Amino acid sequence: MSASAHVFTWCPRCRERLQTRPEGGALRPVCPACGFVQYLNPAPGAGVVLLRGREVCLVRRKFEPRRGTWSLPTGFMEWQETAAETAVREAREETGLYVRLTGLYAVETGLLPPDRPVLVVFYRAEETGGQLEAGDDADQVGFFPPDAPPGPVAFAAHRRVLERLTAELAATRKDDA
Ligand SMILES: [Zn+2]
């Protein structure tokens, strides 16, 4: 995937034109005047895998990219947050529910369309309160079987989490029988 759309032409510190130079094992935009280096990294996010029985909480995206498609409640980390704090906050903002994290579920890398690499930390979570109500950048929220979401799922990373969850739920159903 190309990073070209994200590369600065001008130094954001001193406005000099950046040059491409080897820096730390890769070719990167470097400012010849002040030494600024543009490191391109995936953007980190976090979210929750929250179940009610055998159904998982999904939200519908209110905004682009992929407006109208569904995802697990997730969002980008703020500057001074831990991943766990991000997951709890995003759950609260998008679903109206207060949650407690009960463990790490998956770490996925993916692409936010059109071309933004992201890393998403998914935690297992339990409800502790609140009232189910879509908010922030979600316009619908509900609990659905992970193999039967109410519409297309926005991102491959989220689809992988739902596939894994489906397999785990199928395995526990067998155990029950
Ligand atoms: Zn500079």
Detailed description of the structure:
- By secondary structure, the protein is an alpha+beta fold.
- It folds into 2 domains: 1-40, Ubiquitin Ligase Nedd4, Chain: W (Single Sheet); 43-176, Alpha-Beta Complex (Nucleoside Triphosphate Pyrophosphohydrolase), CATH 3.90.79.
- The chain has 2 helices and 9 strands, in the order ββββββαβββα.
- Residues 11, 13-14, 16, 31, 33-34, 36 line the site of zinc ion.
Proportion of beta-strand residues:
35-45%
Order of helices and strands: EEEEEEHEEEH
- According to CATH, the homologous superfamily of the largest domain is Nucleoside Triphosphate Pyrophosphohydrolase
Helical amount: 10-25%
- Name given to the CATH architecture of the largest domain: Alpha-Beta Complex
Report the mean per-residue pLDDT as an integer: 93
The CATH class name of the largest domain reads Alpha Beta
Bound molecules: zinc ion
Shape: elongated
Give the uncertain stretches in residue-range form: none
The total of beta strands comes to: 9
Q: What summary fits the major beta sheet?
A: 7 strands, mixed
Global structural class: alpha+beta
In the CATH scheme, what's the topology name of the largest domain? Answer: Nucleoside Triphosphate Pyrophosphohydrolase
Enumerate how many helices there are, as a single number: 2
Termini Cα gap? 46 Å
The structural domain count equals: 2
Rg, rounded, reads 19 Å
